[in-house]
Amino acid sequence: MILSAHDPAKLPAVQNGILDLTGIDLEQVGPIALDGEWEFVSGQLVNSDYFNNQGSSTLVGVPSLWTKYAVNGESVPKYNKATYRMVVKLPKGESILGLKTGNIRMSNSLYVNGEKVGGSGAPAETTTYSQRNTPYTALFQPEDDELEIIVHVANFDYASGGGIVSSLYLGDDESILNIRTAALAYDWVMIAALFAVGIYFFGFYLHFPRERSLLFLALFCFSMALYTSTHGEKVLDIILPGIPYELFSKIQGTSNLIALFLVAYFHSTLKEYSNKSIVKILIVIGVLLSCSVLLPLKISSHLQNVYSIYLFVAILYIFYIQIKAIRNKTVGGMYLLLGSLTLIIYCIVGTLNVIGNTKIDSLPPIFPFIYLMMLSLFMAHRFTDTYRKNEELTAKLIEVDQFKDEFLTKTSHEFKTPLHGMIAILQTVAKDLNGKQQEKIHFVISQAKRLSSLVNDVLDLARLKRKELKIDLKQIDLYSTVFVVVEAFSYILNKEIKIINKIKKDTPYVVADENRLRQILYNLIDNAIKYTTQGEIVISAIQDDDKLIISVKDSGIGIPSEQLPTIFNNYERGNHLDDEQEGMGLGLSITKDLVDLQGGQIWVDSKLGEGTTFSFSLPIVKEVESNHVDCDDERTQVVESLSLPYANGNPMGKKIIIADDNHANLRVLIEALDTTKYFIIAVDNGADVLSLLGKERDVDLLILDIMMPKMSGYEVCQIVRETYSLTELPILMLTAAILPEDMVTAFQAGANDFLHKPVDLQELHIRVNNLLLIKESARAATNMEIAFLQAQIKPHFIYNVLTSIISLSYIDIEKSRALILQFAKFLRGSFDFTNTNKLIPIQNELSLVHSYIEIEKARFPERFTFELDVKDEVSCMIPPLIIQPLVENAIRHGLSAEDAGGKIILSIQQKGEKLIITVRDNGIGMSQEKIDKIMSGKLKDGRNGVGLLNIVKRIRQFLGASISIESTEKGTEVEMILPYNIQGIEE
């Protein structure tokens, strides 16, 4: 309480039950403590009549427990009822007065001049009394100049005894109400402050759950607030006026947890100076004492002194470890010492007041606040020191992290070369091994590639952390990009997984870095494959305002919901996966960084066991420009000067088609190639390439960019390879990507060579020259095959013909002469083709066919018949040796199983600007598999079909020329369609 009683030396005290205030102005001096000698009647609750009739009483000191009194030589029992009486002589003219009570155990009634003016509980002669001990004020109007104050007190529950334990105060009504208000204000301020500080430290603890000292300090503040609300003016009883006093006393006893929480707090804060065993003992005792409040008050009150001793011991131990901490120069130690001294003083005074052994009822309210302030300063000092140390450690960690990144980067660079070498050697070794051995080697190769991918991830991560990763934002065709990535996986996919590309060709262009967008798709698809044993992986895209949302959905094992928030963190891996599936957890982290750098967002939806969908957004290009280049002035001027399709160079030189959607790159390639040596045609899309191949004759080289709108370089390459072999039309692929999968996919699609952009001009020249040499070699090989066809007739065929001539000379000399003449014409016609690439009159080819037929008829008169269907007006130029080998092939192979009745029909017809040549027989025919091999140039049988293979290759070199083969069990038909005015191929 905030009570300031006047000095007893200056104010009269109660003597012999009488207090004389006749010469004192109560309004001036304020409240007066009614301490001194009161009349005391033990064992009875009496009224004024008892004292007026000279009833016996004993003078006792008030305030005090009645167990300290002796009546008739005997101590007053602790469980008792009693009456206190005193008389006050007032100065004349006093108006309204008041009384303020304090601690009166355990129930009381207050009477003034025979009238009851207040009370707490209901004192009675027996244990049926109603207990309650709550301070209150009583105001009254004195009728004369003398007051008789009688207090009835009863206690049958509290073990330490009853009585008026704290002072009663008398004064004018204003001063009495003022001290009541001041006491309540003090309690409320204490409760609010303690509760607020407790909430503050508890909130602090929620942010730092590992710092348990914050929790214990918060609980200490809460228990202190509870203690204040159940002591002093006992505001809890004011808040809950109907609360049973038994329950109130239990709540009051719970507040003794103060010492327990304080011990736990200092042990947690100064653990290195605290003894764990002692702390455990103190905590166990504190818990047991706190549990004792569950017992009835009559029993639990016996432990009041034990509570006080426990609190005192706990404070001494706390003080002891604080002294140790101060001696060791612990941070903020002096704050602890000052706070502990304040707490000791406060607790000692409070304990003495509660026990009632002394009269110390003026407690400065600043003590609790000083203690809380000291603890707060101590915590602030510790956190400041911790923050400073953390800053130092952070600086060291950053330095170590930089060293780590540098080490990883250098190590990864050193790993790359031997790793790629190892993969190459293993792939070479695998070719010569059997099935099981190959399987093991391929497993090692897959692990090495996985390590290679990890090395690339580490390098990318290091560049991302150093902010060295450059992003080149351009307009990108998502369809082509996804097609290229899916195509790469289609060649290396070994699981029962199907990748479905649902990106439409008319999907809007996005603003992105081409290489990094492909890296994002590679990572997401690779992640889906890794965790999908069978099923589908679907890539789709939808437009959302000015963004395009791309999704990669799999039907794999899924991701637990608790791991979704951290799935994009560095080194984050699913802990539900087995070791074979786990990686370092860098792929998704790098993917998120790459998406962020390109102005997008990435997120994941997944259900365990149902699959996962990774989605990311990219900005949409508002207006797709015709060329995808940066808009700086210099490059814009270059682009504007280039109109497509572009054709320039030496018409007599090697013909090269270049396709790249970036016009600036086209210009670089055109300028890099010597137009005096080459005839260059440039386009910016795959469809134009295919269109040119249908119009231009004898293209020597294709240079294709992998990434082109609507139709990627891979698609173009695959379509070209359906018509031209690797040697007939070499293809050089270009890409700005740095992914090794691109090279594999390009070669799988049918490319001859691969070149990274930006192109090194010297390397470009070397590769172009090498590929043109391949084309030249293929052409030379075709000519050699024609020479080989000629060579085939010489040994065996000449011997057979000469034998037939000799035989006929004995039978029919005229036929023998005619056969000699036809044989001479045939040899002269065959050996006349010194340059097999030039065109010859069709009559020369027919003459050669006629000679060959006559020879064969002379040798096998009954074997076949030959029909020639050609009009005299057909007169044109054709490539040499394209009809006679077909007729020879029909006779030698088509009719080989026929004894007689074979029929060969040669038809030559002109239809408009086309010349149609058909060779038909009724022989054994060919299988469709053999026809397909001949048409694709993959026939491996050297004994059959050499002539046909050669003719197919040569016919395709002529613009507008085609050849087809149809065969059934009853014969074969070969049809060639040539331009009537066909032009020769220049060397």
From TrEMBL:
It is found in: Cell membrane. It catalyses: ATP + protein L-histidine = ADP + protein N-phospho-L-histidine. GO terms for molecular function: ATP binding; phosphorelay sensor kinase activity. Keywords: ATP-binding, Cell membrane, Kinase, Membrane, Nucleotide-binding, Phosphoprotein, Transferase, Transmembrane, Transmembrane helix, Two-component regulatory system. Its main location: membrane. Residues 410-622, 882-982 form the Histidine kinase domain. Its EC number is 2.7.13.3. SMART domains: HATPase_c, HisKA, REC. The chain crosses the membrane at residues 185-206, 213-230, 250-266, 278-299, 305-323, 335-356, 362-380, 476-493. Residues 655-772 form the Response regulatory domain. InterPro entries: 7TMR_DISM_rcpt_extracell_dom1, CheY-like_superfamily, HATPase_C_sf, HATPase_dom, His_kinase_dom, HisK_dim/P_dom, HisK_dim/P_sf, Sig_transdc_His_kin-like_C. GO terms for cellular component: plasma membrane. SUPFAM superfamilies: ATPase domain of HSP90 chaperone/DNA topoisomerase II/histidine kinase, CheY-like, Homodimeric domain of signal transducing histidine kinase. The keyword tRNA processing does not apply. PANTHER family: HYBRID SIGNAL TRANSDUCTION HISTIDINE KINASE C, TWO-COMPONENT HISTIDINE KINASE. This is histidine kinase. It comes from Lysinibacillus antri. The lineage of its organism: Bacteria, Bacillati, Bacillota, Bacilli, Bacillales.
